From TrEMBL:
An MF annotation (GO) of this entry: dioxygenase activity
InterPro entries xref list: DIOX_N (IPR026992), IPNS-like_FE2OG_OXY (IPR044861), IPNS-like_sf (IPR027443), Oxoglu/Fe-dep_dioxygenase_dom (IPR005123)
Keywords attached to this entry: Iron, Metal-binding, Oxidoreductase
Protein name, per record: 1-aminocyclopropane-1-carboxylate oxidase homolog 1-like
Domain of life assignment: Eukaryota
Gene: LOC107422938
Organism whose genome encodes this protein: Ziziphus jujuba
This protein's record includes keyword Metal-binding: yes
Similarity comment: family membership: Belongs to the iron/ascorbate-dependent oxidoreductase family.
Fe2OG dioxygenase domain ranges (all copies): 221-320
Amino acid sequence: MKELMVLSNPDEIETHYDRKSELKAFDESKTGVKGLVDAGVQKVPKIFIRERDNLEDGYSSHGHSTISIPVIDLEGMDGCGSLRDEMAKKVGEASEKWGFFQVVNHGISTNTLDAMLEGICKFHEQDDEVKKKFYTRDGSKTLVYNSNFNLYQASAANWRDSIYCTMAPNPPNPQDLPQVCRDILIEYSDRVMKLGISLLELLSEALGLKQNHLREMGCVEGHYLVGHYYPACPEPDLTTGIEKHTDKSFMTLLLQDQSGGLQILHENQWVNVTPTPGAIIVNIGDMIQLITNNKFKSVYHKVVAKNKGPRISCASFFRPNFQNENNLLKVFGPIKELITEENPPVYKETTLKDYLSYVLSKGFFGNSGLDHFKL
């Protein structure tokens, strides 16, 4: 692989820097960030270096550990009565005040969770020549492996590699999935899909709606799975694992290892999401904030780069079925049952296509796209 230019000082001026060529060389290596680390890189290549202002975001850059996101016990979530009512209340309060919470006793065994993280790790750590067969920027492929889906559009790349796969409603042919993680991708996807439906039902109840309301809107019809691999970074203060963003889907269920690094923005300070063994993290996406008329919050979050690694995570994004193009043209707006004279609509109606087009036009990461759709 062509050696990538490295600068230890992000303010250093390099008159011969050709960013386009550096990006192309990195992309064509098909070995991602892990390939740089395996090659012994000691400094962060310039394509990954973020401007100091973007790294600090104007907020405290050190995650606070004295406060933490809520942890909700889902033991007995399939029941009814006062226990379920209390569970829905807790889910609603966490979605309203935090936009992020962790769930335990959610019905997915620790063995399955561990096997999923191990499967993601095994994919990224297998022989390069095997892995390269899946390297592509063609989103129509069954499984996509690359580094930074927006590599050529972003102002700076993030220090991570990823695999992407649409797992529902039309599961892929198992033979099209990597052998090293095929079985666990299928098993975990099936189990996390069921959990996503259960959580969406609790969210509906927390809003005072019938249990199937959000599900019938198509919020959890599609499941898009992303497996991230964050190698150790030689200069973590110069880049990010994933920069500040909100999720553009309805809801995300995140499985992370015990490495830490995930932070959310809460009351104008970055808060560490401390790993809890056996837990799955739930975060509200932009579209849930829109249809709940700002009641449930889609909050900024990021992953800091670290000098230890790798960090492994698996995000399950729930959204309408994008395999049916008509779903992109479906109109979403504040749910009518939630609108009153005291609580008028905050957002105008929009299609997913228009929302995503706007977000992509302004840059996928950084600021939320919701303000553009306010009335």
